[in-house]
Amino acid sequence: MERKYERRLLSVRTRPSTRSAILPRSLSFCFQEVRMRYHYEKPKIYLSMYGERYICDHPLYDCCTLFRMGEKGLAVIQQRFDPTTKATVWSAIDAWLTDDLYLHPGFKDFFDNRSGACTDGLYPTVTIRQIMWALKMKPLPKERWETVFDRKNI
Question: Which residues contact residue 134 at a Cβ distance below 8 angstroms, ignoring those fewer than 6 apart?
Answer without folding.
Answer: 106, 110
